[in-house]
């Protein structure tokens, strides 16, 4: 909102409108700001430019003839209206935005990439949630290993507070699945000599760019990431981080039982992670593996159950026999940009059709629609393949 005493001289710089503005304020109670050091209006009062634009015809007056009043109304109305933009200008704006958009990284599942408009985005906090043995870790491995395989100038960090990282599984995923798939699609990793490396050699070279550490506390994890982002002796750029699992790192039991101190620590940690992820110089895609537990389960004694209306909504929209909830509490959903929920398919499709299959559902998406699902199968703990 701009006072008319300031706005109209800008719109008509060659005209002296002071007498007309004085008349509007004195006789017709249209605030112009000519006699007020600072324009203030009650919350229910329209701004003065709107007052003038929609004012009824005023009685003629020597200080404000009808032609001048019509001209002032026209000036104010034009200023209030949204300006028309040419198609060429809008096209250029779109091109400029695309040039500034952050990179998208494949999820290793084609249909999920389509649902997410290109995959996971640099600068995002991504929650990979699910019950135990639902394929969360393998899915995260596929994401980070495919990312390193496709981007030879990037590196990644894997934080393993539970000490369960399996390097041989990573080698098998790269050597036996991802590298052969890319070769079959026509991909090339030939060096200067024009020769394609053997899958084993390419897998080992890719793993050289994955830094694995085992922090025991959230503060240790932040120190590790700070050291990785500030590393000076490496030519590759850190672009992806995986924490497997966040429950172990921040104390899932305490958070599940409703510890206020635990929730405060979780919020503080995730805010720090968000700051690291959204760095303007080196944004990171951060995947945090978390656990989903049955909605009614509890590891500690509680009081009487809340009324039905007080129960938090289940994580999934799928008709699961046991609705799920995040083990880190309902607040956690608001600390991430994107959430995918992995659930075993047996409860949905039966023990035969659902065996070895997992349903992945997008349960939160700050930049698009949620609710899409993708089904994949996992064989031998290594071979993950999307089902059409």
TrEMBL record:
Compartments reported by the entry: Nucleus
Region of interest (Disordered), ranges: 297-323
GO molecular function: ATP-dependent activity, acting on DNA; four-way junction DNA binding; single-stranded DNA binding
Organism ancestry: Eukaryota, Fungi, Dikarya, Basidiomycota, Pucciniomycotina
PANTHER family recorded: DNA REPAIR PROTEIN RAD51 HOMOLOG 4
Principal location class: nucleus
Gene3D superfamilies associated with the record: P-loop containing nucleotide triphosphate hydrolases
Bias type Pro residues, positions: 302-323
Transmembrane domains' residue ranges: none
Name recorded for this polypeptide: DNA recombination and repair protein Rad51-like C-terminal domain-containing protein
A Gene Ontology BP annotation from the UniProt entry: telomere maintenance
Keywords: Nucleus
Domain of life: Eukaryota
Cellular component aspect of the GO annotation: microtubule organizing center; Rad51B-Rad51C-Rad51D-XRCC2 complex; replication fork
InterPro entries: HRR_RAD51_Paralog, P-loop_NTPase
